[in-house]
């Protein structure tokens, strides 16, 4: 349908075309208009939530204008676009980000004050868009920010979950999950009821020969579910580019009810059908780094991949270019294996719907896709049972088998003597039942595979993908070390530090080129700079202390050393090592004379993070932290020497308060298990130091900031296997100081010891897979070093400033440039 306004009428349009506010008065006018008309509230009925609504809608208008222009510009230029397929986008709040990115926050602050509101309170009204679990989802959000900021034409595709990651409450020390229904009022999304796609499940495949003797496959008689697009604008910083995040929502294909059932009296059945369809996009799976193989999850994956590909192909076909041009117009990045079904789906579109032959289709597919691997943990590697795929996606299973057959024939020709290799690299695992190995399918169907930090990218080549390096050669594999957006993680979370840096560098340019930060090293001896830097850190700690008091009712002294570990709770991330270290510290303090205790470096140990609802060991760790917190904080002997805090419901907006307030943050995974980590980067960029293992991006952070400005400890990745082996065959002695910690726990100091026995036994009796005992001494010795180092406040300050200055490498802008050049081969569309 031609939807353009005819030429003669365009003048009228242009005359009345929406304009962006640019003065305080116009901003206020927009806010009041939205509150009075869009929200139907009044002067006498306007609370902070209405003010948040009005402010958001005023900024939304601005974004929409730029968003429309960006899309128009991109449609006109029709460049190669990037599509980032991710089941998770952990966006957090949008308003503050929108204000900073369009650069109107000061005007808005003044305007809101005229209207009787405080900016900070208004920002606080917004609920987080929490469509993700942790690092993988937050990385996707940082990437969107960088893509827009760098003016790349890019779209994110995901699901519009009704429920994001659950809210965590701590009741009697235990985690309780509360559903996160976040869509009550979401001014940032636009339903596109005209952009829908029919998605098929189940059914069967019919094959026949057409007149020319060609084999045709038809997938038919399935169940149809409707995908409806919801769009959210993604503004770049200091640019007019506003990209799009498209979220798919599922709906029954025949509208509200099935009227045939409805009319024949099967009211309930018709409602049930509708609900079953809507279930697909209802909830985000709350497992971080764990594959549970649930059918509904596979449905989510296909629903989202099929809708996104339909959309991408539809856009491509508008240009009427030849199919061979597809990879020159489209780059699709697979964020982990979750979107791997996009590979057989694109094959199906090209073969069955567009009539291309196998070889041409396969060449297009391989050139189009890139695959990012985020983990080597075996329990996180996705596999789907063949019978499940057969039932849900019969045509896709055929295509997967065909891909596998051609691949295995190629391997056989290349390695005729290595028969065992075929079984090892086959996409199909010959188990009972057979399983589809998604990582292999993703790798085989992509032209590049990347890990997310150097160590991790090396590890995938020597472990899970070792055979594939032999098959394809090393050039198929590359590294792109993760990064973070300095807009949210410095400018927004730590405005005073951002301002101080800008005042020394002469502008905020460094927010667009973070390598410019290196120049603040010139001010490391500048007295005023140092004083201000230190005051900012202190003020951020005061802010967090205030929050801790409000949220958890615990008083902490902001002059103590703030030691923070916030991330998903997982055995491999070793929060247990941290809390055992805290118990050890408690015991040492108890043994000291009151005078010695006064001399000890006061510490505030802060934890935060969610456990997957079915992950009992992680929940036990949370419980232990809370028990220790209760006992230690109530102990009059201890006072300010040690406080332990578990912060409830860690999320992106809380991270923005927590991250700027650390003296030390903990990134202490068993070497070789944390692919990258990204909060490590955030903490250092905000003037905190790290205690960490030689794992993930910690290694590159060390390279950048220098060994003197980070506290490393523990065994190396290359020794982990032998150590594990030794636990079973070499006779295994638990570290003596850790033993003492366990004895204290067993004596009931932190409540019924039975509650923690599984945790202790995993170390004592079950082989200590995560090397807690092996690393314990090194960990507490390093913590002692930190106590001493922190007492030398002047040197500490020098370390933190130096580290900040050397963090330029970890911008997600650098990261996106690397993807753009090495994986996507895309150009920029300039904005005017
Ligand atoms: O090390 C982090 C990494 O920084 C890694 O554990 C995480 O991805 C971050 C960004 O690269 C990650 N998440 C998942 N796998 N790796 C995952 C797997 C399944 C479901 C949800 C998340």
TrEMBL record:
<dbReference type="GO" id="GO:0005980">
    <property type="term" value="P:glycogen catabolic process"/>
</dbReference>
<dbReference type="GO" id="GO:0030170">
    <property type="term" value="F:pyridoxal phosphate binding"/>
</dbReference>
<dbReference type="Pfam" id="PF00343">
    <property type="entry name" value="Phosphorylase"/>
</dbReference>
<keyword id="KW-0021">Allosteric enzyme</keyword>
<feature type="modified residue" description="N6-(pyridoxal phosphate)lysine">
    <location>
        <position position="682"/>
    </location>
</feature>
<dbReference type="GO" id="GO:0005737">
    <property type="term" value="C:cytoplasm"/>
</dbReference>
<dbReference type="InterPro" id="IPR000811">
    <property type="entry name" value="Glyco_trans_35"/>
</dbReference>
<dbReference type="InterPro" id="IPR035090">
    <property type="entry name" value="Pyridoxal_P_attach_site"/>
</dbReference>
<comment type="similarity">
    <text>Belongs to the glycogen phosphorylase family.</text>
</comment>
<protein>
    <recommendedName>
        <fullName>Alpha-1,4 glucan phosphorylase</fullName>
        <ecNumber>2.4.1.1</ecNumber>
    </recommendedName>
</protein>
<dbReference type="GO" id="GO:0008184">
    <property type="term" value="F:glycogen phosphorylase activity"/>
</dbReference>
<dbReference type="InterPro" id="IPR011833">
    <property type="entry name" value="Glycg_phsphrylas"/>
</dbReference>
<keyword id="KW-0328">Glycosyltransferase</keyword>
<keyword id="KW-0663">Pyridoxal phosphate</keyword>
<keyword id="KW-0119">Carbohydrate metabolism</keyword>
<keyword id="KW-0808">Transferase</keyword>
<comment type="function">
    <text>Allosteric enzyme that catalyzes the rate-limiting step in glycogen catabolism, the phosphorolytic cleavage of glycogen to produce glucose-1-phosphate, and plays a central role in maintaining cellular and organismal glucose homeostasis.</text>
</comment>
């Amino acid at each position: 349908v031609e939807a353009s306004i005819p030429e003669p009428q365009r003048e009228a349009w242009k005359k009345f075309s929406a304009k962006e506010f640019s003065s305080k008065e116009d901003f206020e006018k927009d806010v009041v208009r939205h509150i009075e008309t869009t929200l139907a509230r009044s002067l006498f009925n306007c609370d902070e939530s209405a003010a948040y609504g009005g402010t958001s809608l005023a900024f939304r208008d601005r974004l929409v204008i730029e968003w429309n222009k960006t899309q128009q510009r991109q449609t006109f230029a029709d460049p190669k676009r990037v599509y980032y397929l991710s089941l998770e986008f952990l966006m957090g709040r949008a308003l503050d980000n929108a204000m900073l990115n369009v650069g109107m926050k000061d005007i808005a602050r003044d305007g809101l004050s005229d209207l009787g509101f405080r900016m900070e309170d208004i920002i606080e009204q917004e609920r987080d868009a929490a469509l993700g679990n942790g690092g993988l989802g937050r990385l996707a959000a940082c990437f969107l920010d960088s893509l827009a900021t760098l003016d790349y034409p890019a779209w994110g595709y995901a699901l519009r979950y009704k429920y994001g990651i659950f809210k965590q409450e701590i009741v009697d020390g235990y985690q309780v999950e509360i559903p996160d229904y976040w869509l009550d009022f979401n001014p940032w999304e636009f339903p596109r009821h005209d952009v829908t796609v029919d998605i098929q499940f189940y059914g069967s495949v019919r094959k026949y020969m057409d007149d020319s003797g060609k084999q045709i496959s038809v997938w038919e008689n399935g169940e149809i579910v409707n995908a409806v697009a919801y769009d959210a604008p993604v503004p770049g910083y200091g640019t007019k580019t506003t990209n799009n995040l498209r979220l798919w929502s599922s709906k029954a294909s025949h509208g509200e009810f099935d009227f045939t059932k409805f009319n024949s009296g099967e009211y309930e059945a018709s409602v049930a059908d509708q609900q079953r369809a809507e279930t697909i996009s209802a909830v985000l799976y709350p497992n971080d780094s764990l594959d549970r193989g649930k059918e509904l999850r596979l449905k989510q994956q296909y629903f989202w991949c099929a809708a996104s590909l339909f959309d991408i192909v539809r856009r491509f076909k508008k240009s009427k270019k030849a199919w061979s041009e597809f990879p020159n117009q489209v780059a699709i990045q697979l964020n982990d294996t979750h979107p791997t079904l996009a590979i057989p789906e694109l094959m199906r579109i090209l073969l069955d719907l567009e009539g291309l032959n196998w070889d041409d289709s396969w060449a297009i597919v391989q050139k189009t896709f890139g695959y990012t691997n985020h983990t080597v943990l075996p329990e996180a590697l996705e596999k789907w049972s063949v019978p499940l795929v057969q039932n849900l996606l019969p045509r896709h299973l055929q295509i997967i088998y065909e891909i596998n057959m051609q691949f295995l024939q190629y391997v056989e020709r290349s390695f005729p003597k290595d028969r065992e290799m075929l079984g090892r690299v086959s996409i199909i695992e010959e188990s009972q039942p057979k399983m589809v190995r998604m990582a292999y399918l993703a790798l085989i169907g992509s032209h590049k595979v990347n890990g997310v930090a150097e160590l991790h990218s090396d590890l995938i080549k020597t472990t899970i993908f070792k055979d594939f390096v032999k098959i394809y050669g090393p050039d198929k594999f590359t590294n792109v070390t993760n990064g973070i957006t300095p807009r949210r993680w410095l400018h927004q979370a730590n405005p005073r530090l951002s301002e101080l840096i800008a005042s020394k560098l002469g502008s905020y340019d460094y927010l667009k080129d973070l390598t410019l930060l290196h120049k603040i090293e010139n001010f490391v001896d500048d007295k005023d700079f140092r004083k201000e830097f230190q005051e900012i850190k202190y003020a951020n700690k005061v802010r967090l202390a205030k929050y801790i008091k409000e949220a958890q009712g615990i008083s902490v002294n902001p002059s103590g050393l703030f030691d923070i570990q916030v991330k998903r709770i997982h055995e491999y991330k070793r929060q247990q090592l941290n809390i055992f270290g805290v118990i050890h510290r408690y015991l040492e303090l108890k043994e000291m004379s009151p005078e010695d205790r006064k001399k000890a470096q006061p510490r505030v140990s802060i934890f935060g993070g969610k456990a997957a609802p079915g992950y009992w060991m992680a929940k036990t760790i949370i419980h232990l932290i809370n028990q220790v917190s209760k006992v230690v904080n109530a102990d009059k002997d201890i006072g300010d020497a040690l406080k332990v805090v578990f912060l409830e419901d860690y999320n992106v907006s809380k991270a923005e308060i927590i991250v700027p307030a650390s003296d030390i943050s903990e990134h202490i995974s068993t070497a070789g298990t944390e692919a990258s980590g990204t909060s490590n980067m955030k903490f250092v960029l905000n003037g905190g130091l790290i205690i960490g293992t030689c794992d993930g991006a910690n290694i590159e952070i060390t390279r950048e900031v220098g060994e003197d400005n980070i506290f490393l400890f523990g065994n190396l990745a290359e020794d982990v296997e032998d150590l594990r082996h030794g636990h079973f065959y070499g006779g295994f002695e638990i570290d003596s100081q850790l033993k003492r910690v366990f004895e204290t726990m067993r004596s009931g100091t932190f409540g019924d010891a039975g509650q923690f026995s599984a945790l202790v036994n995993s170390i004592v009796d079950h082989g200590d897979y995560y090397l807690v005992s092996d690393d314990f001494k090194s960990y507490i010795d390093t913590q002692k070093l930190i106590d001493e180092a922190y007492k030398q406040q002047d040197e500490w300050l020098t370390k933190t400033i130096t580290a900040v200055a050397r963090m330029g490498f970890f911008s997600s802008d650098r990261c996106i440039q690397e993807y753009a050049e090495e994986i996507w081969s895309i150009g920029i569309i300039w904005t005017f």
